[in-house]
Amino acid sequence: MTVLQNKICVITGGGGSIGLATARLFLGEGAKIVLVDRDEAKLIEAVATLAHADVLPIVADVTRTADIQRLVQGAMGRWGRIDVVFSNAGSFGVVASVDQFPEDIFDAVYAVHVRGAFLLAKYAVPHMPRGSSIVITSSIVGTRGDPGAYAYVTAKHAQVGLMRCLAKDLAPRGIRVNTVHPGPIDNSFQQNVEAGLTVAMGRDAAAFFDDMIPLGRHGRAVEIAEAVLYLASDRSSFTTGSLLMADGGLSA
């Protein structure tokens, strides 16, 4: 039996590798998907790749209340409820010393990760029945610090605080809330991160991470999707307020 049969799942950051891999996995488990991204071209490409009738694409900026309300209304209009929210939209920003870090970039990155996850929960929760699940993509850096990545690291820590508040608030309604914490993933997002870190560190950041990861390699998007599937499904029925590390042992 498929574990998400007829579950209505909202996935933000749907045009990226983790969002797309999760959508593909969820569809294979019987879900119906509201796929969200602010980049229309990437979203169109993702929908074409999935080639599935049970995908509702919505172009939206998760930092804008009106956009969040519109995507929730889209899900309700198509399927009448929301069972899973995967808050996965993200942006990295830059790596710079604190005195050189651009304030506008700090604000923009924080808004996507924290305000975006907050708004999605705020407007989706009234339409989520008992047994539903919210999963927020944090990061391994949501449990540690790295020099120069001020916006990204701060936002990823803040997501954990948001998750813990939501988990306590929504437990009486039977809604679970957890974060998933990827380590370095073999995708374009991580490549952009490592390009900045390579300059800041003065050495190849990709090789540096591989040397540090006990499993000796970057992860794959589908491996993160599998972790999200666990948290989204009833297999995690007694798991809420938790940080699921999917980092090849890097945080051990």
What do these coordinates show?
With 252 residues, this protein is of the alpha/beta class. The protein has one domain (8-185, 220-246): Rossmann fold. The protein has eight helices and seven strands; from the N terminus they run βαβαβαβαβαβαααβ. It has helices at 17-28, 40-50, 65-79, 103-124, 150-170, 188-201, 205-212, 221-232; strands at residues 8-11, 32-37, 55-59, 84-87, 133-137, 176-182, 243-246. A seven-stranded parallel β-sheet has the order 3-2-1-4-5-6-7, with helices on both faces. Helix 3 (65-79) packs parallel to helix 4 and helix 4 (103-124) runs parallel beside helix 5 (150-170). The longest helix has 22 residues, at 103-124. It is globular, with a radius of gyration of 17 Å.
CATH architecture: 3-Layer(aba) Sandwich
Uncertain regions: pLDDT < 50 for 5+ in a row? Answer: none
The total of beta strands comes to: 7
Which structural category fits the helices and strands? alpha/beta
**Count of helix runs:** 8
Report the end-to-end length measured between terminal Cα atoms: 34 Å
Concise structural overview:
This protein has helices at 17-28, 40-50, 65-79, 103-124, 150-170, 188-201, 205-212, 221-232, and strands at residues 8-11, 32-37, 55-59, 84-87, 133-137, 176-182, 243-246. The protein has 252 residues and is α/β, with parallel strands linked by helices. The mean pLDDT is 95.
Write the layout of secondary structure elements.
Elements: E1 8-11, H1 17-28, E2 32-37, H2 40-50, E3 55-59, H3 65-79, E4 84-87, H4 103-124, E5 133-137, H5 150-170, E6 176-182, H6 188-201, H7 205-212, H8 221-232, E7 243-246
Parallel strand pairs: 1-2, 1-4, 2-3, 4-5, 5-6, 6-7
Helix pairs in contact: 1-8, 3-4, 4-5
